[in-house]
Amino acid sequence: MISRRTHRSLSCLLLVALLSTACQSRSVEAPIATADNPSSDCRTVEHEMGETEVCGQPQRVAVLNPHTLDIVLSLGVQPFAYAESAVLNLQTFDQPAEQIPHLGRYVTTEPINVGDRKNPSLERLAQIQPDLILSEDWLVEGQYDLLSQIAPTLLFTDEKNGQQHWRYDIEGIAKALGRESQAEELLARYPEQVAAVREQLAPVVAAIQKF
Known about the structure:
Elements (H helix, E strand, L loop, with lengths): L3 H22 L16 E6 L2 E6 L5 E3 L2 H9 L6 E4 L11 H4 L12 E5 L2 E2 L1 H7 L3 E5 H4 L3 H7 L2 E4 L8 H13 L2 H9 L1 H21 L1
Parallel strand pairs: 3-4, 3-7, 4-5, 7-8
Antiparallel strand pairs: 1-2, 5-6
């Protein structure tokens, strides 16, 4: 029998592989501000902490964990700021392919370093003034109120409903970013990609189950 921890590990591996495939097939560019994104274009986004209003198309997106970074990149958006698992003595991730594990090769900008993903620098975030902050509830739930004072903050999760909950994350993040059509395209490709990805991960899955 596969334990809850093992099941979660397998789900995370599958998601990373799927979204990384999406990153490879999509031309990922930083969003460009345009005059036809009026501030009155607001929508309410549901997430783990409730509902948050997001207006316009965010240009300065602070991403505080790799799961969310994977989704953001797959939707064609580059991070304005990022938080790693360890505090690096860097102002920016100027060599993201080397400094951001696994996903750094898909990052084409130089995200501002905002510290540790479990304890991001509130001072640094306040200084750089992001349009939107994205993370997971289990990482920064205790800091949510403070983060929300800096910018609209959305916290998602990979805990509920097993491996299907990532769909909720993608749809919510896409709505916040104004990238709903990209999310539909990403999710539509899922059935075609999942078989190939499972085959690629078969040795890893077997090793985890054996362990």
